[in-house]
Backbone:
């Protein structure tokens, strides 16, 4: 993939298809994916945004902006280790391929696992699904585990 092909909406996930050497790797780092020496094939990421305050001038006012970030999925501290794409090498993006993470995995990667049940409540409230639909889905899920 190319850097510009990534869609930063929190709904698209990507998987490394091969190992990539991190040019800024630090062998002392074990938990922060941004600093490990090798990004291993199979690592998954969610492309999302974060809202930050950006100064308009040195002494002037600030404005809120949404900036794209890559967030590693399946991590203990999802919101902690985000990385802006301009800080990642082209080789990283070249090794990415689209991946299908479940809704739960996408929300967990963004630190929004509690949002999962809230979304179900909203879908019931607006009539897109019923409580019976949720019960049936739970039954199917329990039978497949």
Residues:
């Amino acid at each position: 993939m190319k850097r510009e092909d990534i869609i930063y909406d929190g709904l698209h996930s990507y998987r490394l298809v091969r190992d990539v050497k991190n040019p800024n790797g630090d062998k002392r780092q074990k938990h922060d994916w941004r600093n490990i020496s090798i990004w291993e094939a199979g690592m998954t990421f969610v492309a999302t945004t974060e809202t930050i305050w950006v100064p308009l001038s040195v002494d002037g006012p600030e404005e809120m902006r949404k900036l794209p970030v890559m967030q590693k999925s399946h991590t203990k501290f999802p919101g902690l280790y985000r990385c802006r794409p301009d800080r990642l090498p082209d080789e990283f993006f070249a090794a990415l391929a689209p991946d299908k993470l479940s809704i739960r995995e996408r929300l967990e990667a963004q630190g929004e696992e509690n949002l999962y049940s809230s979304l179900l409540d909203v879908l019931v409230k607006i009539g897109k699904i019923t409580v019976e639909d949720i019960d049936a889905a739970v039954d199917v899920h329990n039978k497949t585990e």
User: Anything to note?
Assistant: Strands lie at 12-16, 20-21, 38-39, 44-55, 62-72, 82-83, 96-99. The two ends are 34 Å apart (CA to CA). The chain has a mean pLDDT of 82. DSSP finds four helices and seven strands in the chain.
